Amino acid sequence: MGTLLYGTSGTEIAFDDRALAHLQIVITAKLRRREGFIFSWTSAPGAGSGRSAIWLDPSSTLFFRYFGSRPPVINREWIEVLAASSNNPGGLVFTVEPESSTEATPSRS
């Protein structure tokens, strides 16, 4: 289970490593373009359910911490789905990986 640490307080947001790698690609692409946006997700029942959201902009302090040592295979379709949501007025909304994907490429570190 990976963790996105947000802000100087180090607020921890848990995602599995595979999901976190995909989020990192989309989030860093937007921040490189100096775009601010909302990022929201639904918490797992064990974490109290409900929705959470944070504001991200180029001044945000982020740390992506992975549990595993190997980078996951990247699903380009999932990247496209997440990137498309990030360009909507509601911001980036985390969604689970599409099942229909047949195109995946290894991540490059």
Q: What is the helix fraction of residues, given as a range?
A: 10-25%
Strand content: 25-35%
The total count of strands amounts to: 8
The total count of helices amounts to 2
Low-confidence stretches: none
- Distance from N terminus to C terminus (CA atoms, Å) equals 19 Å
Rounded Rg: 13 Å
Order of SSEs, N→C?
EEHEEEEHEE
Identify the overall geometry: globular
Spatially, the strands of the biggest sheet line up as 2-1-5
Q: On the 0-100 scale, what is the average pLDDT? A: 88
Give the domain tally.
Answer: 1
Biggest beta-sheet profile: 3 strands, antiparallel
Q: Helix- and strand-based class?
A: alpha+beta
Task: Furnish the topology, listing elements before pairings.
Blueprint: E1 2-6, E2 11-15, H1 17-32, E3 37-42, E4 51-56, E5 62-65, E6 73-75, H2 76-86, E7 92-93, E8 104-106
Parallel strand pairs: 3-7
Antiparallel strand pairs: 1-2, 1-5, 3-4, 6-8
Give a quick summary of the entry.
The protein is an alpha+beta fold and 109 residues long. The chain contains 2 helices and 8 strands, in the order ββαββββαββ.
Explained architecture:
The protein contains two helices and eight strands; from the N terminus they run ββαββββαββ. It has 109 residues and is of the alpha+beta class. It has one domain. The strands form three sheets. It has a three-stranded antiparallel beta sheet with strand order 2-1-5. It has a three-stranded mixed beta sheet with strand order 4-3-7. α1 packs across α2 (76-86). The two termini are 19 Å apart. The model has no long low-confidence stretch (mean pLDDT 88).
